[in-house]
Amino acid sequence: MNTAEYRRTRRKNKRGVLIALLVTLSAAFSLMSMPAMADEVNVDEYDNSVIGNVKLNSEPLEGVTLTISGGGYEAEVQTDVDGQWKVGVPDGDEFTVTLDENTLPEGIAVIDEEDDTPNVKEAMIGPSGSTVTNFFIGRGERNVVNFFDQLVERLVNGLNFGLMLGLAAIGISLVYGTTGLSNFAHAEMVTFGAVMALIVSVDLGWPIWLAIPIAVLLSAGFGWSLDAGLWKPLRKKGVGIVQLMIVSIGLSLALRYTFQYFRGGGTEQLPGSDSPNIPLFGSVSLSQTNMISMVVSTVVIVIFAWWLVKTKIGKATRAVSDNPSLAAASGIDVDQVVRVVWILAAAMAGLAGVLWAYFRPGIRWDMGAQILLLVFAAVTLGGLGTAFGALVGSIIVGILVETSSLFIPSDLKYVGALVVLIVILLFRPQGILGRKERIG
């Protein structure tokens, strides 16, 4: 190769290297300007975070873009292969999560009949520093449901919610009837059952059909231990009802934040929580878990009613609830009856917690506290101390809560049930099935 050819070859190589360098730099700047493709953004920069899932009929959607904004902060993230995403956010309480529907597969839309902008959700950062925001995705365009179908669907959901409330309300009513205690820690018994089902099914990997009975048994044992270690010693010391109620409030707070400490502040799902809906008629549908929940609640309530009316210990429980002093004078072991009541109340509350976790859906450290006032409202509405009254009050409250959102904003649906409670008590203070008592 002569000198001229060598120089031409060298110039070509230099141009090739320069072109390759320019292409590399261009690609690098392009990647820098693109939104993050990972499922985590700014997680290492901030202590707080917003996390979530995007799924279509329980199948994850990859590559969906979401924008998290609030307080002058904005970040963009895309879902990973599991449909999950996580964004670190600065200190603040409220953030807006917007799902870009243009990044969804063709023919897919975000559907929520109660929301005009279902692709936009508000995220509230809790004490744990994180919150979960999930998107439920459906195919096609939003269907228009007539008022009658909406009413029927809300009535069915209200009945399901009322039966679930009834399980918790019956227990708290029995405790009040036999001991006179308004147990505020009953909310944490509800949470306890759901958390135990989560631990057995998810953490230990056992099937959910086995985890639920185990959770109920553990809840019953929890009720037994609370009575044996706390309530019975306090009763023997002659502690007054007001002091016992204050102890129950303290116990409620202690248990609630214990759940948060060990499980965190996020929302966790039980297996089968994303079960598909089954069409009933018209546009009315109900998920498999909700249908099973209604059957289980009904069967348990029927068995409990038979136990309360037909068995010896059930009759003794009714006697103690009516008049503890007279029951003791008749030879009934009041302490034994109270112990049985605590065990049953905790077991039914634990089952209610599992069903509530499927109805919400999800398990949180404060999930029991979210329905505690509704449980008290149901007990008071039906009649304090009466198990059947608690059931009737629960069904009424459940139906009112679910159907009221047809007429008022869904954020106020719990308020409507409490207003009805106040109105009824103005005309019938003893409740629907309660008896009039002479005072003084």
Can you describe what's shown?
The protein is an alpha+beta fold and 440 residues long. α2 packs antiparallel against α9, α3 (186-203) crosses α10 (367-382) and α6 crosses α7. The longest helix is centred in the middle third of the chain and has 33 residues, at 147-179. Strands 1, 2, 3, 6, 8, 10 and 11 form a 7-stranded mixed β-sheet that branches. Strands 5-4-7-9 form a 4-stranded antiparallel β-sheet, with no helix packed on it. The chain has a two-stranded antiparallel ribbon with strand order 12-13. The chain contains 12 helices and 13 strands. Its main location: membrane. Residues 1-38 form the signal peptide. It is found in: Cell membrane.
Q: What is the secondary structure topology, with strand pairs?
A:
Blueprint: H1 3-33, E1 40-41, E2 48-56, E3 59-60, E4 65-70, E5 73-78, E6 84-89, E7 94-99, E8 108-110, E9 120-124, E10 130-132, E11 135-139, H2 147-179, H3 186-203, H4 208-236, H5 241-263, E12 277-281, E13 284-287, H6 288-310, H7 312-322, H8 324-329, H9 334-359, H10 367-382, H11 387-404, H12 413-427
Parallel strand pairs: 1-6, 2-10, 2-11
Antiparallel strand pairs: 2-3, 2-6, 4-5, 4-7, 7-9, 8-11, 12-13
Helix pairs in contact: 2-6, 2-7, 2-9, 2-10, 2-11, 3-4, 3-5, 3-9, 3-10, 4-9, 6-7, 6-9, 7-9, 10-11, 10-12, 11-12
Approximate helicity band: 55-70%
Radius of gyration: 28 Å
Chain-averaged pLDDT: 82
Straight-line N-to-C gap:
122 Å
Low-confidence stretches: 12-38, 140-144
Largest beta-sheet characterization: 7 strands, mixed
Number of strands: 13
| Helical/strand content category | alpha+beta
Helix count equals 12
Strand portion, in percent?
A: 5-15%
Shape: globular
Order of helix and strand elements from N to C terminus: HEEEEEEEEEEEHHHHEEHHHHHHH
